[in-house]
Amino acid sequence: MLNNRKKTRRKAGFSLLEIMVVITIIALLGGIVGKNVMDNLAESKVNLAITQIRAYDDALKTYKLKTGSYPNKAEGLDALTKPVGLTRKAIMELIPDDPWNKPYIYIPSESSSTPPIVRTLGADSKVGGEGIDADVDSITIKSKPDENK
After folding, report:
1. Pick from 97, 99, 101, 106: nearest CA to 75
2. What is the end-to-end Cα distance of the chain in Å, rounded?
């Protein structure tokens, strides 16, 4: 009877090798899932920048309708938070930063017939780049279809 108990105890637990194999499999799966989550997070930031720039474009058009012109360089996007028009209401309550926590760049138009450019420099905060580092502005997004509609 004593021999049966010893055999049972040895078979009841997991060996160190079995535990290490399970931990390795979990770590590999975690790495794959983590990479996919980070890739989706980066892509969602680009999509958020596109959505915000489209909102700025709409707000700038409204500003022009109410005032007769787009904001100048000194006024910039902050002009959208000031009361305008007959209702004396601001078009936007606040001007959010881009998804990478940098302020959007406002480039006024050369003429009153062309709209200004709103731009973000992407994740790297440098001119140019590809993927999530690419610049996003109101000119380049007009060539892309609006996926939110």
Report:
1. 106
2. 75
Angle at 123 between CA 121 and CA 128, to 5 degrees: 45
Q: What are phi and psi of 118, to 5 degrees?
A: -110, 130
For the sheet with 105-107, list strands across it. Answer: 105-107, 117-120, 136-137
> Taking the CA of residue 8 as centre, how many other CA atoms within 13 Å lie in the half-sphere pointing to its CB?
5
Length of the chain: 149
CATH code of 62's domain = 3.30.700.10
CA-based nearest residue to 85, from 62, 58, 54:
62
Q: What is the residue range of 61's domain? A: 17-143
Given a contact cutoff of 8 angstroms between Cβ atoms, the answer to whether 129 and 143 are in contact is: no
19: pLDDT strictly greater than 60? yes
- Give the tens place of pLDDT for each residue, 92-110: 999 999 999 999 999 998 8
Contacts for 73 with CB less than 8 Å, ≥ 6 apart: 106, 108
pTM, entire model = 0.71
Q: What radius of gyration do the chain's Cα atoms show?
A: 27
